[in-house]
Amino acid sequence: MKKTLLIAAFLFSGFCFIQSVTAGPCCSRPAPVDPDRAFIDSFLRYYEFNAAGRYAHEYHPYLLQKTANSLRILENKVGEYFQADGRLVIMGYEGNAIPRYVTNFHDCEGDAISDEVALKTRAGWAPPPNNRFGLMTGFLFRNAENIDVPEDRKIFHLRPETIEIFGDGLDVFQEDAFGEACRAMRSAERKVLETIKAGHPKNVFEAMRDFWKKLYFNATKGGDQQVTGTQDILFSVAHAGHLRDSKVPLTKFYVGADPTYPIIPTTRCSKKATDNAQLFVKIFIENLKPSEGKKTVYIFNSFVDGVGKSTMLGNIKNWMKHGEDVDSYDAVDNTSSQLSEIFEFAPNVYIADLPAQISHFTYKPDGQVFVDVHGIKHPEDEVDAAKSIFRYQRSRFVDEYHEMLNEVKRCGMSQSAKHPAKDFVRNVIILKKEKTNQWIPFESGNHWYIGNLETEELRVCVSLPDAQSSGLKNVEAEQMLFWNGVSLPFSYDVFVKDLVDRCRDKGVERVIFVDFLSMYSRSSRENVRVNYLLQQLGRMDQRFDMSRSLYCDLSGEAELFALFKKPAWRAEVEHNLKSEVLTRLALNKLMEGHEAGGLEHVDIEIMTGHLNNILKDVSPENMEYLNKLVREKVATEIKALEAVYGMTKAYLNVHEISIKEILKFSKKLQELFEEVKNIRVRALWRDFGDRVVEGNNKDEGDIDRIIVMNNNERARAIFVMSPDNRDPSIISGFADIVRSSWYASLSNFVWADEKGVPEHVAMLPVVVKKGTNGKIYILQKLVPVFDRKLEDEFKKPHDHFLSNVDLLETRWGAFDGRAYPIDIKPKDTSRGVYAYATSKASKRSLSPYLEMVQDKVFHDYHTCRTPEWAMTASECLTDVNKRLQGRDSWVNSILERAKKNNAKQKEQKEEKKDKKDKEKKKDSSKDKEKEEDSEEKEEEKPQEEEAEQFEFFDSRDKQLQDENDSDYGYSGYGSSRDKLKPLSPQQQVRGAAVFVRYVATLEAILRSPASNVAVRRWNQNDFEASAKLIEKTVLPQYFGFVVTQPLFRGAIKPVIDLQRLVE
Q1: Separation CA 278–CA 261 (nearest Å)
Q2: 148 burial via Cβ count (<10 Å: 0-12, 13-18, 19+)
Q3: How far apart are alpha carbons 1005 and 1015 in whole angstroms?
Q4: What pLDDT does 880 receive?
Q5: How far apart (Å, rounded) are the C-alpha atoms in residues 893 and 120?
Q6: How many angstroms separate the CA atoms of 116 and 258, rounded?
Q7: For residue 60, what are the CA distances in angstroms to 41, 56, 121, 823?
Q8: pLDDT for 113
Q9: Which of 227, 99, 209 is nearest to 164 (CA)?
Q10: Can you state the angle between helices 659-674 and 728-746, rounded to 10 degrees?
Q11: E-assigned strands of 220-307?
């Protein structure tokens, strides 16, 4: 997904701002001049439609211009009163942004920093907001200290050898981890090292800027297929531009993994996890000295929040107080201040900790938050007591929770009770999470907790200043209680004057700037602001639904694209996006109108009234402009999402499946076998009920229990899942069981002969049914357990390449005198017979030729595409046809042998006919001729009856060739590789056609998430191509059946209607 580059009118501090938006019709207008429209335009055009953009929506050009100007004003104003003697730069990055390739079990015990929230969603685990772009920037400096420099070294990298992915000789792992960005990283690394070697350290800022802009403007994706640079990267670009152009000399530049992380050992984060921070605090304090003996202030500043300024100051204070006694370190104060804190470090040395520059132009909510009891220093005896109370009294707490829900609804939603439980419940209602919330409030000792009904995890209510990093990153918005309201910034000129006056009062003469250019996930203070915004939206717009907005919990952009395919969801997103723009516009107007005032905290309920009043003044013209821009933005982004994710396996094989179609196909398959004129098979597949009768259960995945149907019959449930679950691991398990079982059952049609179709692969029926609880079940026919003394006698018929059972371990059941395996061992249905003869097929592989052809097809396809993309069945068929045109191909050799076999059989038939004619001429007696005719009829009649009795397919299927055709032109060989024989036109050919049509339909509705070939829904060309591929690859490769003419007349249709279904 590339972005169109437009030169905007934002020129400041030598920084030429380049606007980047997704290409589309909404991007072609000149920038408007009306203030409201300017804000709407800037915010919407840069609004990112991806999971990572959740925390970066406020980082748009309108705010960037103010932030960049403020840093220039700060430096100029300070320079009027004090001499700036140098600059220290700290650029930290998230060391664990890339998971380890080598397992270290100590990481699970707290030896690695892991405070990003990974939320479990209906579609799987939402990826935690790890900042790969920071780690990728650190990669540029991995060898910085190995370069000889002509003068004093200014650039230092803190323990780069501890970052696994930075190692030499790990090119393959780096390409896997960094994806498309890997080449740009290596090019940028060379420029950085050349700059260092040349003795121009400040020029590294320009090299970094170039690298970051490439990541952002090209929407470069990492190995996880997520964008590596969200719009907040533009603030890093602006900050680096300021450092490049500033006249203040660069003193030292520190790079490292998590050098300013708070040194607070907890259950989740051991002392070892903060080794880098412990080392860096000792290194850094060596710089804190008076400049030339004069009183000096070190000004800690940054563009954005969450870069480690306050935590660095906290680490310094703890070091001064406790030294290396880390266990005694106090919690770092995370108070959200809009005034600078001036701290006396040593005689004549001060530290001024400034709020992030962006904080002067945005709101700051404050209050309480529920945090993991193991993520902070909380007395263990109190934790144990709370766990015990929740475990044994949870039913009472659940009842109290529901009573509280009713009470809050009765009393009204407007006023906060300043009560942790009631305000939490109020937020649940406001955010429309009553059906999905699993957290129950309760009190233990002097604290309020919430406990999770599924995991029994506990969270305790603490103030935001006391919450550690993980607490600030709590993405469940209802768990933040903004009792302290929202603080509005005062005039920036007043802030700068206050800083200067306080420094002058202390006799400061010199200044050293300490710039925090760190790149961590925008998930701390930004997350707090997002959670407040969501609550504010819920209060201002009763229609607002977080689950139908771009703040919904997503497992990735493929899911987002799938959701946009639903018209109702798209309409709600457009409405909620419009509400967000208006709310942010009102907040911005409120802050701009307040700039002349002082620092003020506004209660969230009063804030709601202010914002609603402001929105009344938005002009009708701007409202119409907003409506139009929202529609255009959504349409443009959907096209961009489709271009990037529309052909991915995640979308086609996971998010595009329809449970309704699977249920319809299961019913159709059952009806097919119920029409078989074989008493045992018909009885075996007889329907045993429409729905599973079962109460609410939390199972997801493999199960093994006997359940009752709505008609009181019983069945064995072997798998269960929620209908909207799109977790790839769950879908994979579901698909492999269903597909391998249905393939095996349907394969019996291919072995049809003049007597019908035997149960070549004996399988108990597997069907998919819905439960009264809304869950989806895979059910198996319930049969009596087989007598194990007779087991060996029945194993041989099940030793087949399509049998998805373990013959040595399976349990066996008996039905009508035959043994059937009960335990299913699902196969990987993304390859082999289940995937058009791809590699690692099975022991039944009749020839490696087709296997090699298919592997070559996919190898060539993915050479120029990401492995995450799926090949359409139409593309695959075209490529396979080209590769099978050679005279020496295996298929052609089989066809030649089949032709010879046909010619020989035709010759034999003609000889037999000639012989019969001669016999008839010799016998002139009419009585004898009648007798011979009578005998022939009597011989034929039982054969016809026998064939009718064992007919194994729906003879009324109009899609099949006319039964009266005497010669179909089909030839091949059966199970023996050495013996060629003609295929029965009345049975085997028609049976193969049934197999092809049903399997092609199955490919259209359900595939393994890892399948390389996709049949797009409602795409007739793909469906027909899938059927052809089965003919050309699966039938000859696994069944010895070579098709020389089409199996179907006209367009082949699926066995169920694949029209668009409303989910």
Answers
A1: 9
A2: exposed
A3: 8
A4: 84
A5: 54
A6: 13
A7: 10, 8, 28, 57
A8: 55
A9: 99
A10: 20
A11: 250-257, 296-301
* Predicted local confidence at residue 977, as pLDDT: 36
Amino acid identity, position 201: P
What DSSP state is assigned to residue 341? E
Low-confidence ranges of the chain (pLDDT < 70): 1-32, 100-131, 225, 265-269, 333-337, 413-416, 521-523, 594-600, 677, 753-757, 787-801, 803-809, 839-855, 862-863, 886-987, 1044-1045, 1059-1063
| Per-residue model confidence (pLDDT) at position 20 | 34
CB-based contact 690:670 (threshold 8 Å): no
Q: Which long-range contacts (CB under 8 A, 24 or more apart) does 761-765 make?
A: 761/798, 761/800, 761/802, 761/803, 762/797, 762/798, 762/818, 762/819, 762/820, 762/821, 763/803, 763/820, 763/821, 764/684, 764/813, 764/815, 764/820, 764/821, 764/822, 765/670, 765/673, 765/684, 765/685
Of 527, 528, 549, give the one whose Cα is nearest residue 538. 549
Q: What are the residue ranges of helices labelled H in 768-843?
A: 791-795
Rounded to whole angstroms, the Cα distance separating 761 from 739 reads 14
Residue 104 CB: number of other CB atoms within 10 A?
11
Largest Cα–Cα distance in the chain? 140
AA identity, residue 741 = S
What's the one-letter identity of residue 605?
E
- Strands 296-301 and 349-353, by their bridges, are parallel
- The domain spans of the chain are 23-55+541-646, 371-472, 649-889+970-1042
Q: Is 385 exposed, middle or buried (0-12, 13-18, 19+ CB in 10 A)?
A: middle
Residue type, 301: N
431 touches 546 (CB < 8 A): yes
Tokens 């159709």 -> residue: 668
**Helices then strands, each counted (H, E), the chain:** 30, 31
Q: Which amino acid is at 308?
A: G
